[in-house]
UniProtKB/TrEMBL annotation:
Reactions catalysed according to its record: [(1->4)-alpha-D-galacturonosyl methyl ester](n) + n H2O = [(1->4)-alpha-D-galacturonosyl](n) + n methanol + n H(+)
Keywords: Aspartyl esterase, Cell wall, Hydrolase, Secreted, Signal
GO MF assignments: pectinesterase activity
Source organism phylogeny: Eukaryota, Viridiplantae, Streptophyta, Embryophyta, Tracheophyta
Name the record gives this protein: Pectinesterase
GO biological process terms held by the UniProt record: cell wall modification; pectin catabolic process
Main location: secreted
UniProt similarity note: Belongs to the pectinesterase family.
Pfam families for this protein: Pectinesterase
Location in the cell: Secreted, Cell wall
Length: 384
């Protein structure tokens, strides 16, 4: 990774301005060139702001009427706060997890965790008790959080981790966001057919999360889009097999989906399990690049929903384009796989099976705007 920037006067001013709001860390003066500079983890004032305030409502049901009602009595974060993480010791914390740990339980502030350029080799968890956290890197090429767990590896209890617990970064809290940062799982890519090599870079299990300018790097199962409503804008997502998977309700806008598959691969495996669930993945204005042959979607759940709209496909799409997962449970009769105004040399193959339909405008419409994830209520216009 590149060299670390000096902390400029401008940065210091931005830093200080955040502290006009109630905040729980002290400003540190630091000479960025000194690797021996200390960082202040004094958190004695943390509890002062953590009086029990009402949390935002629980995750919303699939009921639009209820959604609107919830937003009328939603309190939102109160005040804001900046924490810096710097691998060379020139911030409030050396590790991202230490910064997350410093946020009070039942946090009510908007917490911006600014992660300076560097590679942070650690496994990070944002617990459900810590909403309103943002990870802001210095650029997705220079700020990286990485770890290397695989599904077959043993956890502390001696049991195999399994795919969902391999993520280098896992977020359970609501109203999480990330900007200009990359997440990697650096475990080696499996050869086709190898068991236990699933290795996620990121798992998002919290509702109302948005990401912009982020990178997600792995091979099999890179991005676990597990649960809740999510919005990914201008992100780069790389992997080989099912490299976006889970049961989230998510929109991917203007993202690059890059395959590193060697013999065959697949982009999205969506796990909607019943007609009542409003989950699904919508890819709008994306670019599909890399190596193939590649299925664009797989029916992980019986009622899997995946739509590609206005998306460019390189000549990497496998014959048929889509996969029904197990060839036995008639998922080809229950899934919703759609294509709308896609283009590029691979686009024709995405229409390769009768059960992946070319949508008309009315059918495509619900998948094209951020209302698919109720984004108007929680995605700031600058990130939408
Ligand atoms: C921590 O901060 C408190 C309150 O600001 C201060 O009184 C105390 O001396 C600090 N302790 C250390 C070890 O810096
Ligand atoms: C903050 O609260 C935690 C538990 O809620 C407690 O263990 C800790 O001692 C408290 N710290 C201070 C500085 O009051
Ligand atoms: C949606 O909410 C409305 C009003 O609260 C309620 O009458 C209706 O039964 C709900 N529908 C579902 C499917 O939960
Ligand atoms: C649908 O899947 C079943 C097996 O689950 C298979 O027998 C059938 O041929 C498939 N139909 C189409 C149209 O692909």
């Amino acid at each position: 990774m590149g060299s670390l920037p000096m902390i400029s006067i401008t940065a210091a001013l931005v830093f200080l301005s955040y502290f006009t709001a109630t905040c729980f860390l002290l400003v540190v003066h630091c000479n960025a060139t000194s690797s021996t500079s200390t960082y202040n983890s004094n958190s004695s004032s943390i509890n002062s702001s953590s009086s029990p305030l009402p949390l935002p409502p629980p995750p919303l049901s699939g009921n639009t009427t209820t959604t609107v009602q919830h937003h009328h009595n939603w309190f939102g974060p109160k005040g804001s706060c900046l924490i810096t993480v710097d691998a060379s010791g020139c911030g409030d914390f050396l590790s991202v997890q230490a910064a997350v740990d410093s946020v009070p339980v039942n946090n009510r502030e908007q917490v911006l965790i600014q992660i300076n350029a560097g590679t942070y080799i650690e496994k990070v968890v944002v617990p459900v008790s810590k909403p309103f956290i943002t990870f802001q890197g210095a650029g997705r090429d220079v700020t990286v959080i990485e770890w290397h767990d695989r599904a077959g590896d043993r956890g502390p209890d001696g049991q195999q981790l399994r795919t969902y617990n391999t993520a280098s970064v896992t977020v359970f809290g609501r109203y999480f966001s990330a900007r200009n940062i990359s997440f990697k799982n650096t475990a080696p890519a499996p050869m086709p057919g190898m068991e236990g090599w699933q290795a996620a870079a990121f798992r998002i299990s919290g509702d109302n999360a948005h990401f912009s300018g982020c990178g997600f790097y792995g091979a099999q199962d890179t991005l676990c889009d597990d649960a809740g409503r999510h919005y990914f804008k201008e992100c780069y997502i790389e992997g080989s097999i099912d490299f976006i998977f889970g049961n989230g309700r998510s929109m991917y806008k203007d993202c690059e989906l890059h395959s590193i598959a060697t013999r065959f691969g697949s982009i999205a495996a969506q796990d909607r399990k019943s007609v009542d669930e409003r989950t699904g993945f919508s890819f709008v204005g994306c670019r599909v690049t890399g190596s193939g042959p590649l299925y664009v979607g797989r029916a992980m759940g019986q009622y899997s929903r995946i739509v590609f709209a206005y998306t460019y496909f390189d000549d990497v799409v496998a014959r048929g384009g889509w996969d029904d997962w197990d060839h036995t449970s008639n998922k080809n009769k229950t899934v919703f796989f759609g294509v709308y105004k896609c283009w590029g040399p691979g686009a024709e193959a995405v229409r390769g099976v009768s059960w992946a339909r070319e949508l008309d405008y009315d059918t495509a419409h619900p998948f094209l705007a951020k209302s698919f994830v109720n984004g108007r209520h929680w995605i700031p216009p600058s990130d939408a």
